Amino acid sequence: MTTVWDFMPAMSLFAFVTAMTPGPNNFLLASSGAQFGFRKSWRHLIGIRLGVIGLILLCACGVAVALQSHPSWYQAMKFVGSAYMLWLVIKLLFTNPFSGTGTKSKPLNVTQATLFQLGNIKAWMGSLALITSYSLPSHYWLSITLIAFVFTTVGLLANLFWTWVGKKLSIYLNSPFKQHLFNFILAVMILLSIAPVLTSSI
After folding, report:
1. pLDDT tens digit string along 129-149?
2. Cys staple from 26: which of 66, 67, 162, 190, with CB 3.0 to 4.6 Å?
């Protein structure tokens, strides 16, 4: 008989690929790492993991099915989330937190990073795929708990990596032009990563 432990290798690999590949969370963490460093980015990290755990639990409780039954709910959630992401992109484009003058922007706090996941289509799809692929009806909530634990652990490692990448890149951002170019590249990547949101459905 199949047990939750039999799924561990495949589930861990899927979680790693999902968490490590580029997406809105990782691009924003790279930006936070470059601008603020590890110490000031930890609230952002915690918020992401709490938000993703929330998405896993929502999917496990059947919210994804409810969204399928009520497309208008999903459309509203999708556009609110997209609007928030676009606001972050605009904020990224028009601030220069590396300069020594002016008011510096602040990293996302726990609440902001947690709520951000509601509009993050990649996080929704990853959570839904984990639930549908690796949960067991015979041990449903045990398997859900294991999924949340694995995805949180692997996701945290991936998030730390992207924050570290941003921190290392900050060494080379030694001129206003490079600073603005870095912000622009990240903003474009975030826009490309959320573009499918406008045409996708759960």
Report:
1. 888 888 888 888 888 999 999
2. 162
Residues of the chain with pLDDT under 70: 1-2, 4, 64-68, 70, 73-74, 77-78, 81, 95-104, 194-202
In sequence order, the 6+-apart residues with CB closer than 8 A to the CB of 103 are: none
List C-alpha distances in Å: 180 to 8, 33, 98, 105, 143.
43, 16, 9, 14, 45
Per-residue pLDDT tens for 9-28? 888 888 888 889 888 899 89
Which token pair is 107? 């990293």
Q: How far apart are CA 123 and CA 108, in angstroms?
A: 17
Task: Burial-class residue 24 by CB neighbours within 10 Å (0-12, 13-18, 19+).
Answer: buried
Give the phi and the psi of residue 144 in degrees, each rounded to 5.
-65, -40
Torsion of CA 199, 74, 107, 30, to 10 degrees: -40
CA 172/CA 99 separation, integer angstroms: 13
